[in-house]
């Protein structure tokens, strides 16, 4: 089946030749009795000498013509199987049609009986075949080792055809999400759906994507988080809710960030951030055991143990351990900035003490957090939706957790004092007026909901994409999102 420089023109010529012979290159239906995996399994189960007849279908991935016989492989979603075609079985006309007009990449159906070749490979002895879809473009050169990231991300279908390990990543992703759902459903959580198009964005510090609804004559925003709507449901009487879905943030693109990403957020009434820590440990360990068969994973050459309990450390102690700087002894912004300069910490000055603390932590501590770690008790200024610590009101009951140096999730004891929440929103308004594009807007409707009474509540959100990165040992978020957002291709 030779290819020349004008592959597409050659294949179109074959297409027209097939049509001229009355063969539909794109029939409406395909008959298939077994997937490739099922066909092999049926043969392995059969008694010795039993004839196993099958009709399989898939994409032709290889073909080796040896005169009057041809060996080839087709692949479907379950795997691949070898085909054995003989001129004497098919007849001269059909055999020549296969040799001349069927190309690698075409989808075909093959009917025959199962046997094992002399080399031991379970195969289909083909008695008849049918073209199911003619591919007008060939697989990329060296398709069996496709590594060009431009092609892999922009034409993910070629990546999935060429690289079985990529398909396995996305199969694992689906199993992870299914396992999370089972875990929460079994514990009485109710899966819900909240608006993606929102009249006011909120629940995180991020810039939104803006759109416009013509019929309503109003600006709407793609959600940056699910939080405020889910907590409205706790006000409404649901005790345990969760949502798995897309969030959108108008931010940079990197190995850890995609502007469209998948998260889970969950809220539990009569719980706090301590309960959320225990829930996180249990989810991660249970899902790893179910999907991977172990709680010890390898991420980028590092063995990571997800077995509970995980390490718990306050932000203060984490910074002290790695920099020698005790943030509680330097509660003034200017004083803290001087201390950072004296220690030559790789940070820039921020507008508040809390933001300065967060900057120091991000630069000096995050890169060291390989094993699963809960970092507790964040500054108030960077946590407008979290409950104050009773014994340290300049801090809040909030944690982030880190695995493989990746920030993997965030949780609070939720702020349920409506007057305090209004004050926090007003502080955020002032930050916005001072130029902070990621400050949280004032959500008056949410404050009204709080005034109807939100019970003590623990809330948690974590990124599904980053979880999949960890469990499949992928260094980039683009490897775990089927169609990642990419910069415009630069033309030569």
Can you characterise this structure?
With 492 residues, the chain is of the alpha+beta class. The chain is built from 15 helices and 19 strands. It has helices at 7-20, 36-45, 87-90, 92-101, 149-154, 156-162, 164-186, 227-235, 273-292, 315-323, 333-342, 353-364, 418-433, 444-451, 464-472, and strands at residues 53-66, 69-76, 79-86, 107-116, 122-133, 190-191, 197-198, 210-213, 218-222, 240-248, 260-269, 296-299, 302-305, 311-314, 373-379, 388-389, 392-403, 406-413, 457-463. Strands 6, 10, 11, 14, 15, 16, 17, 18 and 19 form a 9-stranded mixed sheet that branches. A 5-stranded mixed beta barrel has the order 1-2-3-5-4. The chain has a 3-stranded antiparallel sheet with strand order 7-9-8, with no helix packed on it. Strand 1 and strand 2 form a beta hairpin. The longest helix has 23 residues, at 164-186. The protein is elongated and about 90 Å long. The relative contact order is 0.10. The model has no long low-confidence stretch (mean pLDDT 94).
Structural key phrases:
492 residues, alpha+beta, nine-stranded mixed beta sheet, five-stranded mixed barrel, 19 strands
Q: What's the topology here?
A:
Layout: H1 7-20, H2 36-45, E1 53-66, E2 69-76, E3 79-86, H3 87-90, H4 92-101, E4 107-116, E5 122-133, H5 149-154, H6 156-162, H7 164-186, E6 190-191, E7 197-198, E8 210-213, E9 218-222, H8 227-235, E10 240-248, E11 260-269, H9 273-292, E12 296-299, E13 302-305, E14 311-314, H10 315-323, H11 333-342, H12 353-364, E15 373-379, E16 388-389, E17 392-403, E18 406-413, H13 418-433, H14 444-451, E19 457-463, H15 464-472
Parallel strand pairs: 3-5, 6-10, 14-15
Antiparallel strand pairs: 1-2, 1-4, 2-3, 4-5, 7-9, 8-9, 10-11, 11-19, 12-13, 15-17, 16-17, 17-18, 18-19
């Amino acid at each position: 089946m030779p290819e020349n420089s004008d592959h597409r023109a050659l294949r179109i010529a074959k297409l027209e030749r097939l049509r001229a012979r009355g063969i539909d290159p794109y029939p409406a239906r395909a008959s298939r009795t077994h997937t490739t995996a099922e066909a092999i399994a049926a043969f392995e189960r059969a008694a010795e000498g039993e004839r196993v007849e099958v009709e399989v279908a898939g994409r032709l991935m290889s073909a080796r013509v040896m005169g009057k016989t041809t060996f080839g492989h087709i692949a479907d979603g379950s795997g691949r199987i070898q085909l054995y075609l003989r001129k004497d079985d098919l007849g001269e006309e059909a055999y020549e049609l296969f040799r001349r007009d069927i190309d690698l990449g075409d989808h075909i159906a093959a009917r025959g009986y199962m046997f094992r070749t002399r080399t031991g490979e379970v195969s289909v002895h083909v008695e008849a075949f049918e073209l199911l879809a003619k591919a007008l473009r060939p697989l990329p050169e060296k398709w069996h080792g496709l590594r060009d990231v431009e092609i892999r991300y922009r034409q993910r279908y070629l990546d999935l055809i060429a690289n079985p390990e990529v398909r396995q990543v996305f199969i694992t992703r689906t199993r992870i999400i299914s396992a999370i759902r089972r875990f929460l459903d079994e514990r009485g959580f109710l899966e819900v759906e909240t608006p993606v198009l929102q009249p006011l964005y909120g629940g995180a510090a991020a810039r939104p994507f803006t759109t416009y609804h013509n019929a309503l004559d109003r600006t709407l925003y793609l959600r940056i988080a699910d939080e405020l709507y889910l907590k409205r449901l706790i006000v409404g009487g649901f005790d345990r809710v969760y949502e798995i879905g897309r969030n959108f943030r108008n931010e940079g693109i990197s190995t850890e960030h995609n502007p469209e990403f998948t998260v889970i957020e969950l809220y539990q009434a009569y719980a706090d951030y301590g309960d959320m820590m225990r829930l996180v440990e249990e989810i991660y360990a249970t899902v790893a055991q179910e999907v991977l068969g172990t709680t010890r994973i390898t991420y980028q050459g590092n063995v990571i143990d997800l077995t509970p309990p995980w390490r718990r450390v306050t932000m203060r102690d984490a910074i002290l351990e790695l920099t020698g700087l005790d943030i509680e002894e330097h509660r003034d912004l200017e004083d803290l900035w001087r201390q950072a300069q004296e220690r030559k910490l790789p940070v820039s000055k921020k507008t508040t003490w809390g933001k300065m603390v967060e900057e120091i932590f991000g630069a000096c501590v995050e890169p060291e957090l390989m094993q699963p770690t809960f970092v507790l008790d964040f500054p108030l200024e960077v946590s407008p939706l979290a409950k104050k610590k009773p014994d340290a009101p300049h801090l809040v009951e909030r944690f982030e957790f880190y695995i493989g140096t990746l920030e993997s999730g965030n949780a609070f004891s939720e702020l349920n004092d409506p007057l305090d929440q209004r004050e926090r929103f007003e502080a955020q308004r002032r930050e916005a007026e001072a130029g902070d594009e990621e400050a949280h807007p004032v959500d008056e409707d949410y404050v009204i909901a709080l005034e109807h009474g939100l019970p003590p509540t623990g809330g948690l959100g974590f990124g599904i994409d980053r979880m999949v990165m960890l469990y499949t040992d992928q260094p980039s978020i683009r490897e775990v999102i089927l169609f990642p957002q990419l910069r415009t291709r630069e033309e030569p």
